[in-house]
TrEMBL record:
Gene3D superfamilies according to UniProt: q2cbj1_9rhob like domain (2.60.120.620)
Protein name: Phytanoyl-CoA dioxygenase
Length: 303
C-alpha cells in the first residue's frame, strides 16, 4: 500500500486503489481551497475575537460544547457547504450522476484535558464500517488550518484487511440515530455507543498531513484514529463521504475483516446531481429489512 499524490488515473482505478487500502492526496482541486476559506470564515466569526486555534484557552469545555453544538448543524446544512462539496467531487473526476455523498461534517480536536466528548469526540482506533458505513464508502478529509503530527489522524495500514478485536457488535445504526439527539450536550461522558478497537497499540502508525487546500481520500474500511492532541492548538477539519452507485449495486468495495454492527448508513447518501436517495426497495434488497420502529435516517429536532 502507498500514499499517492495527485495520482493520474481513471476514476474506477482510483476507487479500486482506495478499496485495496491505498491512500490518495489531491492537491489541485480549486473548490477545496474555497471550502477551506468558507469554513475558516465561519470559525473566525464563531470565536471572535479569539483565534480559533486558541479558542479553548478562553472557553471551558461546557461553554465550548454550547457554542459548537448549534453551529455544527448550521455549517453542515449550509447550502454553500454542500455546493462546494459537490464541486470538489466533480473536480476530482467522479461522475455526478453516479456518485452519492453525505453532508460535510466539521470536526474539532482540542488539546488533551479539554473537550474530547460529544461535538469534539476524540475517535479511538476504528473503521467507519464499524459504524454501519457501506464497504464501498470513500472518506474525504480536509484540514481547515495546518494539521500537525501531534493533532491530526493516524492509520494502521498493517491491519487494513486483518481483524482486530473490537466492539462493533454493540453498534446498531438505527439505535444510534436516536442516541445522536443528545450528542451535542455531552461534555463529560459519551451519550452514544462508539465502536472502537479493544486494546489496540500498533507498533507503526502512519500520519498523513495534507495542507489546507488539499484533501486526503481513504477507504471507510481503513483502521484509523484521532491522534491525541498534544500540540496546544485546536485542530479543525471537515470530512464527507461518497459512494459510487454502480459499486453499491454490484457489492464492490473494500474487504470487511472484522465488522459486526447492524443497520446501514446508505440512506444518508444523496446524489451529487439531483440529491435523490437510493430507492428504498433497492436498499432493502441489499441490506435487508430494518426493524419496524427504526429511525432509518437521523432527524434533528426542530426548533
Amino acid at each position: 500500500m502507498a500514499v499517492h499524490v495527485d495520482l493520474q488515473a481513471p476514476p474506477e482505478v482510483l476507487r479500486q486503489r482506495l478499496y485495496d487500502g491505498h491512500l490518495l492526496v489531491m492537491t489541485k482541486l480549486p473548490s477545496v481551497a474555497k471550502f477551506v476559506d468558507h469554513a475558516r470564515q465561519q470559525l473566525t466569526e464563531l470565536f471572535a475575537p479569539y483565534d480559533p486555534e486558541h479558542a479553548h484557552e478562553h472557553f471551558e469545555p461546557a461553554a465550548m460544547a454550547a457554542l459548537l453544538g448549534p453551529w455544527k448543524p448550521r455549517f453542515i446544512h449550509d447550502e454553500r457547504s454542500k455546493k462546494l462539496v459537490r464541486n470538489i467531487i466533480e473536480e476530482a473526476g467522479f461522475t455526478a450522476e453516479e456518485t452519492h455523498f453525505d453532508v460535510p461534517k466539521p470536526r474539532t480536536s482540542f488539546p488533551v484535558g479539554h473537550l474530547t466528548t460529544g461535538v469534539a469526540f476524540a475517535f479511538p482506533w476504528h473503521r467507519d464500517v464499524w459504524y454501519s458505513a457501506p464497504h464501498m464508502q470513500l472518506n474525504w478529509w480536509l484540514p481547515i488550518f495546518p494539521a500537525r503530527d501531534d493533532n491530526a489522524m493516524s492509520f494502521d495500514l498493517d491491519r487494513f484487511n486483518a481483524p482486530v478485536e473490537n466492539n462493533s457488535a454493540d453498534f446498531d445504526y438505527y439505535r444510534n440515530n436516536v442516541g445522536r439527539l443528545t450528542t451535542a450536550a455531552s461534555v463529560k461522558q459519551e451519550a452514544q455507543v462508539r465502536p472502537g478497537a479493544t486494546g489496540h497499540h500498533p507498533p507503526n502508525e502512519l500520519v498523513v498531513l495534507p495542507a489546507p487546500g488539499q484533501v486526503l481520500l481513504f477507504s471507510g474500511a481503513q483502521l484509523h484514529r484521532s491522534t491525541p492532541n498534544t500540540s496546544g492548538l485546536a485542530r479543525y477539519s471537515v470530512d464527507f463521504r461518497t459512494v459510487h452507485v454502480p459499486d453499491v449495486l454490484a457489492g464492490r468495495g473494500a474487504p470487511l475483516a472484522d465488522t459486526y454492527c447492524s443497520g446501514t448508513a446508505i440512506r444518508d447518501f444523496v446524489n451529487v446531481a439531483d440529491e435523490s436517495r437510493f430507492d428504498e426497495a433497492t436498499v432493502r434488497s441489499i441490506y435487508g429489512e430494518p426493524p419496524a420502529d427504526a429511525m432509518l435516517v437521523f432527524e434533528a429536532p426542530k426548533g
